[in-house]
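User: I'm new to structure prediction. If I give you an amino acid sequence, what do you actually give back? Let's try with this one:
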Amino acid sequence: MHELPIIELFGLRFDLSTLSMLLVTGVIVFVLAVAATRNLSVTNPGKLQNFMEWVVEFVRNIITGAMDWEKGKKFLSLGLTLIMFIFVANMLGLPFSIVTEHHEPFSLFGFEIVSQQVLEKHHGEAHVLWWKSPTADASVTMGLALMVVVLTHYFGMTQNTRYYFKHYLEPYPVFLPLNLLKEAAKLLTLGMRLFGNIYAGEVMISTILLAGPWLIPLLSVWQGFSVFVGAIQAFIFTTLTMVYMAQQIQHDHH
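Assistant: Good question. You get back a string of structure tokens that encode the predicted 3D arrangement of the chain. For your 254 residues, that looks like this:
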């Protein structure tokens, strides 16, 4: 079992691998966005521009499937950011992982990463994981889910104020606890679904590698399947975001 490079600062625990992979994900998405829009052309668009136009149209269809375009067009940039960021994050742990082996206590930037207690726990040998999919960390996926849920409630309160508060008492006031529970469940289902799928995929890859070289062909098949799962999870997360947004801003139209 791999150890994570966790440091404690101001009483809080920070996973350096997750933080660094979030940074890598953000840089990749930013570079792709800039490269795709640098030399825009109507008559002779490049392959990257064509791909980005396809992604924009794909996200537009997700939005129009959940709400009226006039209300939903302002969420286009949100949808693009979510689907690109989550897809790239899901893919990072598939090609390879970076693991360092330590037989002695190890510190980084003055923070102890591998302690003597950790070495004793692993019989004098600790393996620290540095490269992984950031969405294989529940704190990341739950953070994304929390951001989405907070945004949906914000737009509901500011753009559909009257019905936003009224719908918690529908169809009868006695249903208030159930309606509140439903809103809380959105946070869990949105975040844990993404985490569970990506984390399980990386655990499976590690298991195949530990089993021996005779399972390498299976690894290739599983990685191909994981690309499909990662893409589907990015799509589902973005789609549910737009559905939840539509429920809050135009609930009275349905």
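You can read the tokens as a compact description of the fold. Here is one thing that stands out. The beta strands are 6-9, 12-15, 99-102, 106-108, 111-114, 126-129.
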